[in-house]
Design goal:
The complex is a heterodimer of chains A (245) and B (115).
Chain A: H1 2-26, H2 36-47, H3 53-61, H4 63-83, E1 90-92, H5 102-124, H6 133-144, H7 146-150, H8 153-159, H9 162-185, H10 210-237, E2 239-241
Antiparallel strand pairs in A: 1-2
Chain B: H1 4-22, H2 26-48, H3 71-102
Classes of the chains: A mainly alpha (245), B mainly alpha (115).
């Protein structure tokens, strides 16, 4: 049975590898000069005063796709919350205070504010420099969890009222939708970047609605990561199976 | 003009597939899926590369002064990473439930359905 499966895998894998190599041989050469979509995306981004072209692609030219991406994230978080809820045969134990080595504690508490501000900076400068809502949101959310390393789980739970983060996740998704609908009300297409003035190139307020959508995504990603990690950590730290069930 | 980066992407993808097919542990399988997915990052970024080009961010270079790599595939890669992370989280949550209900994470031992 197992040998047969391995043989089947070898045949299928060899076929797949051959097809992939054939496809690679037909692709345009690596590092070529011809990038028609890229050139047009750069033109469109510069026309709308967005210095970071990738943000312009994500939140202006393909803002509608980012809405889908955000919905995937939201749905996945919802799925995890449902899957990782406390079951009927489980109970919650209070997490015990843990001993933390002093250098770890000192370093974690020192880095926490720096990491948090870095995350917010990356979100705020998404339209100017590399980064944006997705990256900055993850940085800001992980910064909070330094408290778990530096102190203990109880301390993390005190600064992390889960309901607030779940609400802000939903509010951020709504904010994105409302921004999209606002452009419909203004008489253009859904999520079209024509609502706000484009501003001065390479300043914080440039890019029209890009910074706003960026902020909404940053808020959503940060809350989503906090909620996700909270449920996984709850499983590891707090939720215990009933004895003898 | 060479195609080595594309072949690297294909190699990473096939490696991930091999891991998925021979996996004896569901957490390991989720990791292998992440390897498969990272092949798509390599492929996308390789497709968008341009010789001698820099990042498509104009906060510190004047527009037009230097060639830039394709921003569209970079944005696609970002989407890819986000979707990959969410899928990984969801699958790990499923594995956690399987481990609790069935007491095993070996896919070969998960034969019968249980309520």
């Amino acid at each position: 049975m197992n040998r047969l499966r391995l043989w089947l895998l070898a045949v299928g894998g060899a076929g797949l590898a051959a097809l992939l190599v054939a496809a690679c041989l037909d692709l345009p050469g690596f590092g070529g000069r011809r990038h028609p979509y890229g050139d047009r995306a750069v033109q469109a981004s510069l026309a709308r005063h967005t210095a970071n072209t990738i943000s312009s692609v994500n939140f202006d030219q393909r803002a509608y796709d980012t809405l889908g991406e955000m919905s995937i994230l939201f749905a996945a978080v919802l799925g995890c919350v449902v899957l990782l809820r406390q079951a009927r045969d489980e109970h919650r134990d209070r997490p015990e205070p843990a001993e933390v080595a002093r250098p770890v504690r000192r370093y974690a508490l020192l880095v926490l504010p720096v990491a948090l501000v870095t995350g917010l900076y990356v979100v705020a400068h998404g339209q100017l420099s590399p980064g944006g809502g997705f990256q900055g949101g993850v940085v800001a959310a992980t910064a909070l969890h330094l408290l778990y390393l530096g102190a203990d789980y109880g301390a993390l739970e005190r600064v992390r009222p889960l309901g607030v983060y779940e609400t802000s996740d939903a509010v951020a998704v709504c904010a994105y939708l409302v921004l999209g609908l606002a452009s419909v009300l203004a008489g253009t297409a859904f999520l079209a970047n024509t609502l706000l003035p484009y501003g001065t190139f390479n300043t914080l307020s440039s890019g029209g609605t890009v910074p706003l959508l960026n902020a909404a995504i940053g808020m959503e990603v940060a809350s989503a990561v906090v909620v996700l990690l909270a449920h996984f950590l709850d499983q590891a730290v707090e939720i215990e199976e009933e004895q003898g069930s | 003009m060479h195609i080595l980066p594309y072949l690297v992407a294909a190699y990473v993808f096939v490696t991930g597939c091999y891991g998925l097919a021979t996996s004896r542990n569901l957490i390991h399988a989720v990791g292998c899926l992440a390897v498969c997915q990272s092949a798509t990052y390599v492929l996308l970024l390789a497709v968008g590369y341009r010789d001698g080009a820099t990042a498509p961010v104009f906060s510190d270079i004047a527009p037009g002064s230097r060639p830039v790599v394709d921003p569209v595939v970079q944005a696609l890669t970002l989407t890819d990473i986000v979707v990959g992370a969410t899928v990984t989280a969801l699958l790990l949550a499923l594995v956690l439930q399987i481990a609790k209900r069935h007491g095993t994470v070996d896919p070969d031992e998960l034969r019968e359905l249980r309520g």
